[in-house]
Every structure is written in structure tokens, then in C-alpha cells.
């Protein structure tokens, strides 16, 4: 039999970003498939791949769907490969509906449902409201915060459960083995817990099987059981616990029902936030399957804005026959007819924002996203203010968010359609945030290859392998990320630490003599203030120093302590260090930032790009295999082209680089870049000033301090009031440390800032 086939994609906005698998997403994407059989009967199915599960992407499913043209045969449906389980489920569901209609029997009964609790501070209020509505089974996501914080919330939830109430905990594979044991020890003996769902990543199946045998609390598999092939594998390898079934990703409904008839594992059916069409076909599958005694995890209404794509009620019991064929047609008519190439595709990849403070979670998200070389990974600073977030989301509209971006933010903005056709899938695009003097936030575009080249250059230059790193710098920053990659590439250890802990005299339990520590100037200065931490630094194999200017006094103090310092120079665009002074040369009193690392060429040029003689100051130009490809979304740098930095410097007769300052307005404070124009805009938007000018002044502790000159609109305007008005929209290091109230800001006849006059007043300001 032949069927006419059509599809229409959809995007459903969540009211707040929702964790799907290990990632946060602002929307649910999918496609409705319609088949018309030879009798003219219509059937509908839903293709709704889930991020974080080992299934095809929506783009891949649609691209494969194109191969059918306007018609599909029964043989073609049966021949859809296993790697397309979501598409197979959608098309076969539509086929069954077209040939058999929506099944109706008189023996149906209302189906009890479990409902999802929101991940926010008002969870107990939501629990109370849902209990009043009649729900008795609840699901709560864990691994969003640290264990101690979530343990407290868990005790409150378990106390607030209604009589006979049951709770499911879902980790989405985000925990490590230690965290999993902590949860299982907490849950053991608590008879109101149905199960702990997918505590470890899918590849840790054997660990979860052993943990399931060691504790009384049941462990359920979810991400490990994505698709019929995975289900067969885990059961065949000895799994006897509950299996969470998301119908839309199982593959062939017919094949699944045949398998489930002989499966002894308890089955827990759960929605994946589909439309009413996928919801209904999932209910049909659950009612026909065996070993399904758990409440259905289909209580997911209320998480979307009103878009007309939901039809089922939101109560504690579901009517299995609520959807009609007319409902399906109404949903179909609400969707836009696609063009020939419906969804811009980067070979099936996704734009992913990675926003995570916890270093273990960051690593988990980062390397998981890298497994699919088609993804574009944008690193985000979890401490960005609202204005910076808006700027980031105006630059790129991510498909997913990994980590913990502010939930109240709406992921709106223009969709970038920039294609990078000359990059292959293996290039694994990684976007690292940086700032410019006039352009605000930008993402330096790297690939796994450029970062790997930088790591190899580092190892070759210092002759250290493996590289064991003790990291105090954030992983969204290139200086922190490269420490992780150097350790990963060389098989070294990576230990994440806290600068505050060190200042309090609490040092990690490892031998520093085999480790490298990377510091910015401010961190080094503060650690040297305490004798104990100075002695501890001396034990490191190397102390890498970057992040802006460093004064002679600090270098002399470090050298006097005998600390193996390696002053370095590097940028986000160069994948961190591209020149460095070895510890031996530093201790022998050599100056500067050292020589270019192997594979790096550094040249000093004039404004026309012409090379300058040794000892002459000019703009620093860099060539290397670790250079970025350009700034997203411009993608303008040609391969092999030198990068003209915003820094001024010179090369001495030994080829050592000396950085003398910035050629633009960027302020480097505590190792962080601050764009003065961005701070000025935030202050002007407060409505409290008539004029403002922001710049940096040299400071021994911070390298530079951010200074704001301002002209108030009203006499009662205070510095505290100004700071309070901008602090939510800026990152903390961007907020000026020095404020000076003026009757006017000096400008020349052309209306430009009178820099000479400001410099004359600088001593008074500081």
C-alpha cells in the first residue's frame, strides 16, 4: 500500500526554560507527520526527538523524510533505519491511525498520572496546589543545585507529600558516583520513593546495575533506554529494575509491543512534552503494553504558553479517548506549511549555550556536546547581568541551554543563519565569549583542532607532559577552559579549586610539585600577602601568570620567594597562551612575556601592517595554528592571515615579547575585560545622569580599576543609588570601583572627550 506523506514542523515555547535530558531549552521542537492512505483516510504521528538521548536530531529526521518525496510505501516504512527511531515512531503511528482510526473501546478507564514539580524556590507551594487538585504521584528534578541544598528541599517535599503520596527523583544522568551514593543513602528506607531515575550517564550502565543491587531504593533507567535497541541491550545485560519509556523515541510501536510482551522489567511511561498528537499515541502504546503498573508520567500540561497544540486535561487522571480526528486536523491546520528546506541545518547540529558554574557539570555538558561534531557550543558566563544576556541572545538563538541560565530570561532574538560550509563535522565549533572596545560581546570562534593545537604548543614549549592543572579560573573563560583541555589531551589530572579557600588557608590535598597553577595578577598578589600560601605556591612545578599588566614590585616579590613563575601573554583569539617566559628565565631575572611558543609567530607592526625594527613599539600581530576563525557571526578572518591584536608591545634582541599596553579602551581589571562603553550605556539607562564617561586607572592590586565620571540629573543622586541601578544589568567586575561627580565632563570643540584633561585630573580621582 502507498501513502501520501506530508510533514509540518513546530516550535513550542516553554513558559520557563525546561531541562530536557541534561540540557535546558526554551522551546520544544518537533514535526507532525500526516499520511493519507489509498482510501483517503488520514493518520497523524509526531516526530519529537529529545536532546540528551541517543536518537536522531529533528533536522536529520526531516532530511531523511525528504528522500520519500510525496509518497511512501509500507516497505519503505519498514525499512526506516534504527538510527531514526523518532521518525519511525511518527510515520508508523500515522500509518496505524490512517488504516485503523483512533481506537475506542467501552472498557477504558481513567488513567492515573504523575505530575512534574517545577525546579524553583516555590516548589512546596506548587506541591500543595497539585495535592489539592488530586495528584498523589510527583516527579522532581535533581542535580540542578548542590546536594546539600537539594537535600533540604527534599526533606521539605517528603514531609509535604499527601497521604499515600509517592515521589520520583530524576537526575537525567547528571550525577557522579559519589553524588548517586549520597542520594541512595538518603533515600534508603523511605517507602514513599518510587525510584531514582537515571542518576549516572548512559555509558555508566554497569555502575548503575551494581548500585541497584546494593540499595533498597529502585533505580530506573531513562537516557540509557532510548529506543528499542537500547532497551534490548540493557535488559539483555541483566537489568531488572524499572525502565522509563518515552513513546516518541522507542521506534516502531509494533516492534516495541512485541518486545514488551516478553519483558519482565516494570515499565514507566512518560511524556516528552509532545503535542496532543504525540501525547495520544503515547497513551495508546502505554495501554497496550504489559508490566505497566506505575502512574503515567504524562502530567506535563501547564508548561507551555497557550498555543492550541494541547488537548488533554491537566488533572490527576487522563481520559484515554479525549483526542479526536477533528482535533488532529485542527492541530495540523495551526502549523505552517514548510518550504522545501524547512529548518536551516548545520548537518543536523545544534546551537548550544553552555552556562554552568559547577566544574564537574561543565565538563559533563561540554564533552557530551562535543561528541556530536556538528554542534556549535557557545560558552556563557553564569554571572552575566540581564543586559549581557540580552546581548548574547540577540547574537544567537540557541536550540538548547546546558546548565543554569537565569530561568526568567526568554530566549528571544534573531536566528543566525550563518553557515560555515568549508568546515567539516570534525571541526567541532566552540564559541568562547570575549569583548571588544566598540562591538560589545563577541564570540571568538574556535574548533577542537585550534584548541588542541594550542595545547600541543604549550606542551612542546614547556616540555611538560602530562599536564596536571590546578584551576582557579572559570571554565567559560579561555584561560580556564585551556587548563581543562591541556589536562585532557595529555592524560593529566584536572583539579578545580577556590581562591577564597586558599586565602583562608585551606589547601587541597595533593602534592603541588607535579601541578601547574594559573593565576591572574590580582590572585598572585593576594596569595603572596600570606606566608603560608606563598610557601605553598613555591612547591608548584610552574605558576602561569596572565591577565594583564603586572608591576615590577610584584614580580620582584615573587622572584624573591623563589616561586617558579611563568609570565605569559595570550588572548581568547589565540586559545590562551601564545608566548611565555619559562620559570628558569624568570628566576634568572629576565623580563617580559617570553618567546613565542612553538608554532606561533609574533610580529610587531605599524598601523599599515608593516613590520617594525627590534625594540620599536607597535601593534602585536600573531600567526598560529591555534588562532580563532573569526568573531561570530562575522566569520571574517582568512585562513593563514595574521591576527592584529589590540595590544601594543615590542620584541627585544632575544625575541622576547614585552607588552606595553592596550591600543583601545578596554580595561583589564583582575584579569577580566571591561568595555567602558557598555558600562556607560548601563549608567545612562538608569535615567539618573546627564552624562557619563568610564575609563581605567592603574592599580597595583587590580591592574586597573574602573572609574566612572558622571553628571547627575538631580542633586540627590548618590553613588550608592547609581550602583544599585546598574548592578543587575552588569557583571560584578564591570561595576565601577571609583565614582566622581562632576558638573560637566570635559569635551573638546568637536564634542569628543578631552583625554588630556581627564588624565590631568586622574591623580585627584584616585
Concise summary:
By secondary structure, the protein is an alpha/beta fold. It is built from 23 helices and 35 strands.
Structural commentary:
The protein is an alpha/beta fold and 766 residues long. Strands 5, 6, 7, 8, 9, 12 and 13 form a seven-stranded mixed β-sheet that branches. Strands 20-19-21-22-23-24-25 form a seven-stranded mixed β-sheet. A six-stranded mixed β-sheet has the order 16-14-15-17-18-28, sandwiched between helices. A hairpin with a 4-residue loop joins strand 23 (565-571) and strand 24. The longest helix has 16 residues, at 85-100. It is elongated and about 85 Å long. Residues 339-347 and 410-426 have low confidence and may be disordered.
Keywords:
766 residues; 7-stranded mixed beta sheet; alpha/beta
Secondary-structure-based class equals alpha/beta
The helix content is 25-40%
Q: Let me know the average pLDDT.
A: 85
What gap, in angstroms, lies between the N and C termini?
84 Å
Give the overall form.
elongated
The proportion of strand residues reads 25-35%
Radius of gyration: 29 Å
**How would you characterize the largest beta sheet?**
7 strands, mixed
Overall strand count: 35
Secondary-structure blueprint:
Elements: E1 2-20, E2 23-36, E3 42-47, H1 58-66, E4 71-73, H2 74-78, H3 85-100, E5 111-116, H4 123-132, E6 137-141, H5 147-160, E7 166-170, H6 177-187, E8 193-197, H7 205-214, E9 219-220, H8 228-236, E10 243-245, H9 253-260, E11 267-269, H10 276-288, E12 296-299, E13 317-318, H11 325-334, E14 351-355, H12 359-371, E15 376-379, H13 386-395, E16 400-403, E17 429-435, E18 441-447, H14 448-462, E19 469-471, H15 478-490, E20 494-496, H16 499-503, E21 516-520, H17 521-528, H18 531-538, E22 542-546, H19 552-560, E23 565-571, E24 576-580, H20 583-587, E25 595-596, E26 600-605, E27 618-624, E28 630-632, E29 643-651, E30 657-662, E31 667-669, E32 672-674, H21 676-685, E33 689-699, E34 703-712, H22 719-726, E35 738-741, H23 755-765
Parallel strand pairs: 5-6, 5-12, 6-7, 7-8, 8-9, 10-11, 14-15, 14-16, 15-17, 19-20, 19-21, 21-22, 22-23, 34-35
Antiparallel strand pairs: 1-2, 1-4, 2-3, 5-13, 17-18, 18-28, 23-24, 24-25, 26-27, 27-29, 29-30, 31-32, 33-34
Helix pairs in contact: 14-15
Amino acid at each position: 500500500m502507498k501513502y501520501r506523506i506530508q510533514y509540518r514542523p513546530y516550535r513550542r515555547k516553554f513558559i520557563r526554560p525546561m531541562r530536557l535530558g541534561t540540557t535546558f531549552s526554551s522551546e520544544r521542537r518537533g514535526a507532525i507527520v500526516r499520511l493519507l492512505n489509498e482510501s483517503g483516510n488520514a493518520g497523524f504521528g509526531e516526530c519529537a526527538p529529545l536532546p540528551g538521548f541517543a536518537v536522531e536530531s529533528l533536522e536529520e529526521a526531516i532530511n531523511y523524510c525528504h528522500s520519500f518525496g510525496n509518497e511512501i510505501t509500507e516497505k519503505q516504512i519498514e525499512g526506516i533505519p534504527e538510527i531514526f527511531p523518532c521518525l519511525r515512531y511518527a510515520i508508523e503511528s500515522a500509518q496505524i491511525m490512517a488504516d485503523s482510526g483512533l481506537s475506542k473501546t467501552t472498557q477504558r478507564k481513567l488513567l492515573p498520572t504523575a505530575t512534574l514539580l517545577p525546579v524553583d524556590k516555590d516548589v512546596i507551594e506548587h506541591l500543595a496546589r497539585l495535592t489539592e487538585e488530586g495528584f498523589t504521584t510527583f516527579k522532581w528534578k535533581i542535580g540542578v543545585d548542590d546536594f546539600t541544598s537539594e537535600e533540604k528541599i527534599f526533606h521539605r517535599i517528603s514531609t509535604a507529600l499527601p497521604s499515600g503520596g509517592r515521589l520520583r527523583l530524576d537526575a537525567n544522568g547528571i550525577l557522579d558516583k559519589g553524588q548517586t551514593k549520597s542520594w541512595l543513602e538518603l533515600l534508603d528506607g523511605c517507602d514513599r520513593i518510587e525510584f531514582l531515575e537515571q542518576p549516572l550517564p548512559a555509558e555508566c550502565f554497569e555502575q548503575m546495575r551494581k548500585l541497584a543491587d546494593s540499595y533498597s531504593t529502585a533505580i530506573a533507567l531513562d537516557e540509557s533506554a532510548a529506543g528499542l535497541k537500547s532497551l534490548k541491550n540493557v535488559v539483555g545485560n541483566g537489568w531488572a529494575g524499572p525502565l522509563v519509556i518515552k513513546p516518541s523515541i522507542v521506534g516502531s510501536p509494533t516492534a516495541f509491543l512485541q518486545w514488551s510482551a516478553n519483558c519482565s522489567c516494570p515499565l514507566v511511561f512518560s511524556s516528552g512534552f509532545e503535542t496532543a498528537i504525540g501525547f495520544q499515541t503515547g497513551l495508546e502504546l502505554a495501554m497496550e503494553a504489559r508490566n505497566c503498573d506505575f502512574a503515567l508520567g504524562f502530567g506535563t500540561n501547564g508548561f507551555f504558553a497557550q498555543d492550541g497544540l494541547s488537548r488533554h486535561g491537566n488533572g490527576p487522571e487522563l481520559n484515554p479517548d479525549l483526542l479526536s480526528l477533528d482535533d488532529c486536523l485542527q492541530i495540523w491546520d495551526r502549523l505552517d506549511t514548510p518550504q522545501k528546506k524547512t529548518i536551516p541545518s548545520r548537518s543536523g547540529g545544534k546551537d548550544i549555550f553552555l552556562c554552568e558554574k559547577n566544574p564537574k557539570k561543565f565538563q559533563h555538558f561540554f564533552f557530551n556536546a562535543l561528541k556530536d561534531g556538528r554542534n556549535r557550543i557557545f560558552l556563557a558566563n553564569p554571572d552575566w547581568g540581564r543586559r549581557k544576556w540580552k546581548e548574547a541572545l540577540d547574537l544567537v538563538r540557541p536550540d538548547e541551554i546546558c546548565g543554569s541560565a537565569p530561568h526568567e530570561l526568554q530566549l528571544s532574538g534573531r536566528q543566525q543563519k550563518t553557515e560555515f560550509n568549508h568546515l567539516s563535522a570534525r571541526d567541532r565549533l566552540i564559541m568562547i565569549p570575549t569583548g571588544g572596545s566598540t562591538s560589545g560581546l563577541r564570540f571568538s570562534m574556535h574548533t577542537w583542532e585550534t584548541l588542541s593545537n594550542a595545547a600541543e604548543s604549550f606542551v612542546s614549549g614547556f616540555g611538560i607532559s602530562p599536564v596536571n592543572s590546578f584551576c582557579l579560573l572559570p571554565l567559560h573563560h579561555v584561560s580556564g577552559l585551556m587548563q581543562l583541555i591541556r589536562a585532557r589531551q595529555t592524560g593529566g589530572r584536572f583539579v578545580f579549586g577556590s581562591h577564597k579557600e586558599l586565602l583562608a588557608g585551606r589547601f587541597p590535598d595533593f602534592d603541588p610539585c607535579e601541578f601547574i597553577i594559573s593565576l591572574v595578577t590580582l590572585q598572585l598578589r593576594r596569595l603572596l600577602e600570606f606566608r603560608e600560601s606563598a610557601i605553598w605556591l613555591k612547591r608548584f612545578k610552574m605558576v602561569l601568570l596572565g591577565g594583564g599588566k603586572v608591576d615590577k614590585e610584584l614580580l620582584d616579590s615573587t622572584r624573591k620567594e623563589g616561586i617558579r613563575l611563568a609570565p605569559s601573554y595570550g588572548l581568547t583569539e589565540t586559545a590562551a597562551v601564545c608566548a611565555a617566559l619559562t620559570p628558569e628565565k624568570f628566576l634568572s631575572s629576565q623580563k617580559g612575556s617570553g618567546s613565542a611558543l612553538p608554532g606561533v609567530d609574533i610580529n610587531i607592526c605599524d598601523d599599515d601592517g608593516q613590520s617594525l625594527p627590534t625594540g620599536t613599539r607597535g601593534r602585536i600581530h600573531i600567526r598560529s595554528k591555534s588562532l580563532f576563525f573569526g568573531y561570530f557571526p562575522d566569520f571574517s578572518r582568512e585562513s593563514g592571515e595574521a591576527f592584529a591584536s589590540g595590544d601594543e608591545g615590542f620584541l627585544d634582541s632575544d625575541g622576547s615579547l614585552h607588552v606595553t599596553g592596550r591600543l583601545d579602551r578596554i580595561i583589564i581589571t583582575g584579569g577580566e575585560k571591561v568595555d567602558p562603553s557598555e558600562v556607560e550605556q548601563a549608567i545612562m539607562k538608569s535615567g539618573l545622569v546627564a552624562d557619563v564617561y568610564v575609563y581605567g586607572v592603574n592599580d597595583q592590586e587590580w591592574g586597573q580599576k574602573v572609574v566612572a565620571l558622571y553628571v547627575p540629573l538631580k542633586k540627590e543622586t548618590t553613588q550608592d543609588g547609581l550602583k544599585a541601578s546598574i548592578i543587575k544589568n552588569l557583571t560584578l567586575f564591570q561595576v565601577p570601583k571609583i565614582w566622581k561627580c562632576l558638573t560637566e565632563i570635559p569635551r573638546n570643540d568637536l564634542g569628543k572627550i578631552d583625554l588630556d584633561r581627564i588624565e590631568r585630573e586622574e591623580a585627584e580621582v584616585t
